[in-house]
């Protein structure tokens, strides 16, 4: 287990901290300031709980049942009941990294001192994370409003020592047994605490943060594969000149063009586009417009990162404890800001997949590849080459187009019409995770095709760019084979996918190109 420690304070957290806890198993500690803020807010909640006037979440029911005042002797039961009844998720289990992000981000809000949760509850949340105990959370149960209710409830259930959880060894056991095995005492919830543990955008936010990290790698990788395809097609790198992109100053476009230009530096393949029997005046859109498409996606990532940073600095709960002692109802739990950018990312990822597939198809079509063999086959007719690799890529692209349909444009009323407009942000996040997985595979297929095509060109006497050669050598060292007779293709494609996903393509070329954005 990684012994890196993330300190949770009162002023939010960073994307890097979320990833360190979710994926790197970093330890979590509460700062002294957070413990003080938790204690101060709890004093306010305790004072309100002692008064006869009803306060939402403290001494009332929830949602459409908020009109009932709950007597002192029933309040502990009220908090247990909200957790048990809201832990109503169904379907497949959610990935461990998503659940850890969800738990950590809820702890982040709890530690802000705006929720009224006792310090010992927050400490137990940290202890569960540090023990590597992961609640069983199910795919379905969040509408992205009033928080990711069912997912967070399953986490709170573990905090109470109930339900099922996965231990650090990967075995699912009753949560009470796992807590006992690690010396963790289950929490007995008091006023407001059950509600405070359920009421946040933590699941969708955690998935947004991880998707942004994955997409940053994939966009840089896609700039590289676009450059490799341009080179394999004997295209021109003149369209990447910085002065052309300066007159349309979208930041991402300039970055992608610069990345591609650096990958192609020193290539002996580019610039042959007018030497064909039918000279090309221009390259096809999928080649020539790669910086514009990749760059627009990059700008969308930047916008989404701004939204994520704002949400990471937020305390999302209802009601919230304010520094002046008020406990006020609010609508900050609504997931619209996060849901929108999750959908935006699914749209740009689908379009990046689409343009990537078009270049692959061009590499395989003897009528458009400018001298490459049909399907990059060794003996076309006897061999099918990469024909069906493109089918697989096309199937992935088609699914990405379906996944690009916005979830946030939908809403469905709940809680007897009290919660009559919801964000569907959890659904947007779940489909984005699938889209990101698909995009990695699509980029990997282009890498596989473009490197084979460049090697075929090199066999004909043309010299690839040094960065291209570095990418090819690293890919071959990773076990992905080059040109030759037909073979079982799936393992090669899987290895290329793992190569891209792990950031190895970017790492392979950067010693030649310098750091790529």
UniProtKB/TrEMBL annotation:
<dbReference type="InterPro" id="IPR008948">
    <property type="entry name" value="L-Aspartase-like"/>
</dbReference>
<keyword id="KW-0369">Histidine metabolism</keyword>
<dbReference type="GO" id="GO:0019557">
    <property type="term" value="P:L-histidine catabolic process to glutamate and formate"/>
</dbReference>
<dbReference type="GO" id="GO:0004397">
    <property type="term" value="F:histidine ammonia-lyase activity"/>
</dbReference>
<comment type="pathway">
    <text>Amino-acid degradation; L-histidine degradation into L-glutamate; N-formimidoyl-L-glutamate from L-histidine: step 1/3.</text>
</comment>
<dbReference type="GO" id="GO:0045548">
    <property type="term" value="F:phenylalanine ammonia-lyase activity"/>
</dbReference>
<dbReference type="InterPro" id="IPR001106">
    <property type="entry name" value="Aromatic_Lyase"/>
</dbReference>
<dbReference type="Pfam" id="PF00221">
    <property type="entry name" value="Lyase_aromatic"/>
</dbReference>
<dbReference type="InterPro" id="IPR005921">
    <property type="entry name" value="HutH"/>
</dbReference>
<dbReference type="GO" id="GO:0005737">
    <property type="term" value="C:cytoplasm"/>
</dbReference>
<keyword id="KW-0963">Cytoplasm</keyword>
<dbReference type="GO" id="GO:0009800">
    <property type="term" value="P:cinnamic acid biosynthetic process"/>
</dbReference>
<dbReference type="InterPro" id="IPR022313">
    <property type="entry name" value="Phe/His_NH3-lyase_AS"/>
</dbReference>
<dbReference type="InterPro" id="IPR024083">
    <property type="entry name" value="Fumarase/histidase_N"/>
</dbReference>
<dbReference type="GO" id="GO:0051289">
    <property type="term" value="P:protein homotetramerization"/>
</dbReference>
<comment type="similarity">
    <text>Belongs to the PAL/histidase family.</text>
</comment>
<feature type="modified residue" description="2,3-didehydroalanine (Ser)">
    <location>
        <position position="146"/>
    </location>
</feature>
<dbReference type="GO" id="GO:0019556">
    <property type="term" value="P:L-histidine catabolic process to glutamate and formamide"/>
</dbReference>
<keyword id="KW-0456">Lyase</keyword>
<feature type="cross-link" description="5-imidazolinone (Ala-Gly)">
    <location>
        <begin position="145"/>
        <end position="147"/>
    </location>
</feature>
<protein>
    <recommendedName>
        <fullName>Histidine ammonia-lyase</fullName>
        <ecNumber>4.3.1.3</ecNumber>
    </recommendedName>
</protein>
């Amino acid at each position: 287990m990684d012994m890196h420690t993330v300190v949770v304070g009162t002023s939010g957290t960073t994307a890097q901290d979320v990833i360190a806890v979710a994926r790197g198993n970093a330890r979590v500690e509460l700062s002294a300031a957070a413990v003080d803020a938790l204690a101060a807010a709890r004093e306010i909640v305790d004072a309100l709980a002692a008064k006869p006037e009803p306060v939402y979440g403290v001494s009332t029911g929830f949602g459409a049942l908020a009109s009932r005042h709950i007597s002192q002797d029933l309040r502990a039961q009220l908090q247990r009941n909200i957790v048990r009844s809201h832990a109503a998720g169904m379907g497949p289990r959610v990935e461990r990294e998503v659940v850890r992000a969800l738990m950590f981000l809820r702890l982040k809000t709890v530690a802000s001192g705006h929720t009224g949760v006792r310090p010992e509850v927050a400490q137990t949340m940290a202890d569960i994370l540090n023990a590597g105990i992961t609640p069983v959370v199910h795919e379905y149960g969040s509408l992205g409003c009033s928080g990711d209710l069912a997912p967070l409830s399953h986490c709170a259930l573990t905090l109470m020592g109930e339900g099922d959880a996965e231990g650090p060894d990967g075995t699912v056991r009753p949560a009470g047994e796992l807590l006992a095995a690690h010396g963790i005492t289950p929490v007995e919830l008091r006023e407001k605490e059950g509600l405070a543990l359920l009421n946040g955008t933590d699941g969708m936010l955690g998935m947004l943060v991880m998707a942004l990290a994955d997409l940053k790698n994939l966009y840089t990788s896609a700039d590289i594969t676009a450059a490799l395809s341009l080179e394999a097609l004997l295209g021109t790198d003149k369209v990447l000149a910085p002065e052309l992109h300066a007159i349309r100053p979208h930041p991402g476009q300039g970055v992608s063009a610069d990345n591609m230009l650096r990958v192609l530096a020193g290539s002996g393949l580019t610039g042959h586009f007018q030497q064909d029997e039918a000279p090309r005046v221009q390259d096809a859109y999928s080649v020539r417009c790669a910086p514009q498409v990749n760059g627009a996606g990059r700008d969308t990532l930047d916008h989404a990162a701004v939204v994520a940073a704002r949400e990471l600095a937020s305390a999302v709960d209802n009601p919230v404890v304010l520094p002046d002692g008020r406990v006020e109802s609010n609508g900050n739990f609504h997931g619209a800001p996060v849901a929108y950018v999750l959908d935006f990312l699914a749209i740009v990822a689908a379009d990046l997949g689409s343009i990537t597939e078009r270049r692959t198809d061009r590499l395989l079509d003897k009528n458009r590849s400018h001298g490459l063999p049909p399907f990059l086959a060794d003996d076309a007719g006897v061999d099918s080459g990469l024909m069906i690799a493109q089918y697989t890529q096309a199937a992935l692209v088609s699914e990405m187009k379906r996944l690009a349909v916005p979830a946030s444009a939908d809403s469905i009323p709940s809680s007897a019409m009290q919660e009559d407009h919801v964000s569907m942000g959890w659904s947007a996040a779940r489909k984005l995770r699938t889209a990101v997985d698909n995009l990695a595979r699509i980029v990997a297929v282009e890498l596989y095709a473009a490197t084979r095509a460049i090697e075929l060109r090199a066999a004909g006497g043309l010299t690839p760019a040094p960065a291209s050669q570095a990418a090819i050598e690293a890919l071959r060292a990773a076990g992905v084979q080059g040109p030759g007779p037909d073979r079982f293709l799936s393992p090669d494609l899987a290895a290329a996918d793992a190569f891209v996903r792990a950031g190895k393509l970017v790492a392979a070329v950067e010693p030649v190109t310098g750091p790529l954005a």
